[in-house]
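Following the same procedure, backbone shapes were mapped to integers, as reproduced here:
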Amino acid sequence: MALLGSTQQNPRTKKTETFYTCGGSLINKWYVLTAAHCVKTDTGDEIKLSEIVLGEYESGRDPDCVKGFCIQNVTRTVSKVIIHENYGPGGGSVINDIALIRLNEPVPLYDDSEEETKPGTKPICLPWPSTDEDIAPTLEKIGDLNNGENVVVSGWGRTSNKNRREFQKLVKNKIAVKKLQYLKTKTANDLCKEKISQDVNTDLQLCAGGEQGSDSCNGDSGGPLVYRSGTDNPYYQVGVVSFGTSKCGSGSPGVYTKVVAFMDWIGENMEP
């Protein structure tokens, strides 16, 4: 998980502070995958990201320790932002809601570190094309996730629709919730056709959720939706949190950018 911090004016103090209102996923030592609307406003202006925090669990704590197991945060700044060329904010279109962030320097990975307090950074698997007989069936399934498949979404987004209270928490903590949340849910492309008023292109978008009270929400944008074909298999990122209904958990599914449809774009836009 990556936590994206952007410089904004505090509505109460009028001071310029860093707020954490979007997420992302680390895909290698140099790149974070996120939603285009996390780095570009509805008016087309680029959102200035002040920092990217990796290995975070509870905001404000570093290292994060649970039962004697500690993870060290890693903070980077932005070297380059690549927004999908056909993303068009402000015009009612949320197709191609995907972006890449190149970090100012590579991050140390958990598996490479010999330190006692390890960096909490490890890339998520992406559905790159493969002829490996062990991997190919999973990739084929990922390319055709339709309804009822078990998936997980995670982020630091708000957990209720009590707008005033959630706003107060955001202003106070600079983040919607301090601890990373995750939600087990299911893919639900069929519900999109019934519940979402905007057209959803299932070639480029994936729907998940729709159970009353369970949903991704404001602050989860840009974060990963992941899937694995079995408990012994790794998680693959299949979606990027894009948009949902104004009232989270209302029984309508969330809409995610379908990662497998953008693998060529991701590969073409990453530098060595």
Notes: The radius of gyration is 18 Å.
